[in-house]
Design goal:
Elements: E1 3-4, H1 6-16, E2 19-23, E3 28-35, E4 38-46, H2 50-65, E5 74-78, H3 84-101, E6 104-108, H4 110-118, E7 129-137, E8 140-143, E9 146-149, E10 152-155, E11 160-163, H5 164-170, E12 175-179, H6 181-192
Parallel strand pairs: 2-5, 5-6, 7-12
Antiparallel strand pairs: 1-10, 2-3, 3-4, 7-8, 7-9, 8-11, 9-10
């Protein structure tokens, strides 16, 4: 989608029941539990192996929220961009939960989700750019650029895999970077330029 808006998504989420969200496209496993359109539990931690660590992390998240897998209405899973192996593990795990619990599954573009999270920041006002960044390794990042407009985000670029310094040299104006350590690296490069 080229225009993203959090409000309709939250309204739809409020009606969806309990939804488990997973993103395994980086070296950090991220997950959350949403009920009634609100985040009721979240967990993010570095993992050595998504395949080995993901089941225990999901169990921990569900236990913290006192929710059983059988109570889930749906599962949302990040579709990348990101590590092929990490994404494959997350998608397979989500598909297994969905099949076993007889619930719906939906894929969510990871950079879109990150940008929408960034749009809730007080700094995200119309005209500001939001730039989610994930480490693609070998000096490159996965990224895209969005502009905050009234009650929405407009996606200005397709998802990119690009050297960080090259991408940073293209950015002008006020930008809110979201992501891990590479987001801070990008912010520093833009300030220098």
């Amino acid at each position: 989608y080229r225009v993203l808006s959090a409000e309709p998504l939250l309204a739809a989420g409020a009606k969806a029941g309990v939804v488990l969200g997973l993103d395994t496209g980086s070296s950090v496993a991220r997950m959350g539990l949403v009920s009634g359109g609100r985040v009721v539990a979240a967990l993010a931690r570095p993992v050595k192996s998504h395949g080995a660590d993901l089941p225990a992390a999901v169990d921990e998240l569900l236990s913290a929220a006192r929710v059983r897998i059988q109570e889930l209405s749906a599962i949302a899973v990040g579709t990348g961009p990101g590590s092929f192996t990490g994404l494959r593990v997350g998608l397979s795990y989500a598909k297994g939960i969905a099949a076993g619990a007889h619930i719906q599954i939906v894929g969510i573009p990871s950079l879109d989700a990150m940008a929408l999270c960034g749009s809730s920041s007080p700094a995200a006002r119309p005209g500001i750019k939001i730039c989610p960044i994930l480490d693609a390794r070998k000096g490159e990042v996965y990224t895209s650029l969005y502009e905050v407009v009234t009650d929405a985000l407009e996606k200005e670029t397709d998802d990119l895999v690009i050297p960080l310094d090259e991408f940073a040299s293209r950015i002008t104006g006020e930008v809110l970077f979201v992501g891990e350590s590479k987001a801070e690296d990008a912010r520093v490069l833009v300030v220098r330029n």
